[in-house]
Amino acid sequence: MVLKLYLSPLRSGGSAIVLLVLREKNIPFEYVFVDLTKKESKTPEFLRMHPFGQVPVIDDDGFILYETRAICRYLAEKYAAHGPALIPMGLKERARFEQAASVELANVLPALIKVGQEAVKGTRGMPVDQAKLDVYEVILGQQKFMAGDEPTIVDLFHLLYAPGLASRAGIDLMTQASRPNFTRWWNELLARPAWAKLQAEKEQASVVQKV
Ligand SMILES: N[C@@H](CCC(=O)N[C@@H](CS)C(=O)NCC(=O)O)C(=O)O
């Protein structure tokens, strides 16, 4: 049975990141759209799959999994030989990958979210949060991607929040002239065909939804 991806029709947030991994690895899948505005993720049937009632969720031939990062890890491991590895195999490489994954989730994402929240309130506490990106600038001066010289799903995780910060709040922290290595990395991520395909699909979907 083909893998099912439960996602919001907006293809935003974690759903977008799972879509990217599916595309990067060319994994066959089908969409199951869940309309959050109609509380379709809170039905008893959906809550049996995801007790917190959120998307994304995958159903891989009866194996149900939720949480964006867990889904991406599962897909990258299951389809290790399809397309780019996206998770390193060696012990030390894997440890560095986990290090980068922790930094993204524990340090950088909360900082970006704080910038977004402060932008909404009109306070913009950017100096504190930019310090974390300055550390990224140093790391990316030594290696091509966040976990080493090959792209991994950790790089893709960064696409979850920052693009919306730029498009919705007009805050572009990712291509500052003071951080050339960071900017090079970010532009490489945005140039990946899977990202372009997702943008085209989102554009198409929003046209269809507006009609
Ligand atoms: N930690 C979860 C967060 C998932 C999440 O927040 N999903 C949102 C859509 S982007 C959702 O389903 N919201 C509906 C709700 O929480 O009721 C993940 O990474 O998958």
From TrEMBL:
SUPFAM superfamilies, per the entry: GST C-terminal domain-like, Thioredoxin-like
Catalysed transformations (reactions): RX + glutathione = an S-substituted glutathione + a halide anion + H(+)
Residue ranges occupied by any GST N-terminal domain in the UniProt entry: 2-83
PROSITE patterns tied to this protein: GST_CTER (PS50405), GST_NTER (PS50404)
UniProt entry keywords in alphabetical sequence: Transferase
Occurrences of domain GST C-terminal (ranges): 90-208
MF terms (GO), sorted A to Z: glutathione binding; glutathione transferase activity
EC number: 2.5.1.18
GO biological process, one term: glutathione metabolic process
GO cellular component, one term: cytoplasm
Top-rank taxon: Eukaryota
Family, per entry: Belongs to the GST superfamily.
Protein name: glutathione transferase
